[in-house]
Amino acid sequence: MITIRLEKTQDHRTVEEITKLAFSYPERVERSKIGCCLEHYMVHSLREVDGINDLSFVAEIQGKIVGHIIYSNAYIQKPNGTKVNVLNFGPLSVHPQYQKQGLGTALMKHSIEIAKSLGYGAILFFGRPEYYPRFGFVEAKEFNITDCNGYNYPAFMAMELKKGYLKGVSGKFIESPIYNDDLNREQAKAFDENFGELFYIAAHSVETNGVVNT
């Protein structure tokens, strides 16, 4: 049985370890150009800047944290200079041993419903176009919204949480600079180097209630 709850302070290290495990696949590591993924650094940094604590959730199975999602503040910059506040999300992480078991779906559905209940108007993000439409996402170009450079493509998606929230809104999507690999490579590399032995232990151990048991 999957349990979804808000992340707690004592979960931080475990969440970062799971995030690194989830994104340490060869293509992502190669793209990062620093010998590791950047996503665990993103999660760590979002807790201090732009991340939303009320939309940071962990997924548990039998009391063990095996997944995580975090949302952040973003906005649409209209041509006249005004801003429309929206949500971004990610990283969405599931421990490799628990992938393809519905955890990502559970985290998405739960977090979307909570975001609606908290009064947020829309979500925009970059992700896999073959996966996220099942939750109600469409290409952002349907709302005349582009990325920060003025481009559209299938991986750039949007969803209204309030009907009509994006009607008549057009402009560029501006997300937290924490998601920019080019800006954060050196900081992420330094963060990863300090992750050190504890991550190695976590990667070769069984986690119970967020505590690593070797």
Task: Give an account of the 3D structure.
Residues 2-162 form the N-acetyltransferase domain. It comes from Lachnoclostridium phytofermentans (strain ATCC 700394 / DSM 18823 / ISDg) (Clostridium phytofermentans). This is GCN5-related N-acetyltransferase. GO terms for molecular function: acyltransferase activity, transferring groups other than amino-acyl groups. Pfam families: Acetyltransf_1. The chain has one domain (2-213): Gcn5-related N-acetyltransferase (GNAT) (Aminopeptidase, 3-Layer(aba) Sandwich), CATH 3.40.630. It has helices at 12-23, 26-32, 39-46, 103-117, 181-203; strands spanning 2-6, 51-61, 64-77, 83-94, 122-126, 138-139, 145-146, 156-160, 171-174, 206-208, 211-213. By secondary structure, it is α+β, with helices and mostly antiparallel strands. It is globular. The protein starts with a strand and ends with a strand. Strands 1, 2, 3, 4, 7 and 9 form a six-stranded mixed sheet that branches. The protein has a three-stranded antiparallel sheet with strand order 5-8-6, with no helix packed on it. Mean pLDDT is 91; it is low at 199-214. The longest helix has 23 residues, at 181-203. Helix 1 packs antiparallel against helix 3. The protein is built from five helices and eleven strands, in the order E-H-H-H-E-E-E-H-E-E-E-E-E-H-E-E. The chain is 30% helix and 31% strand.
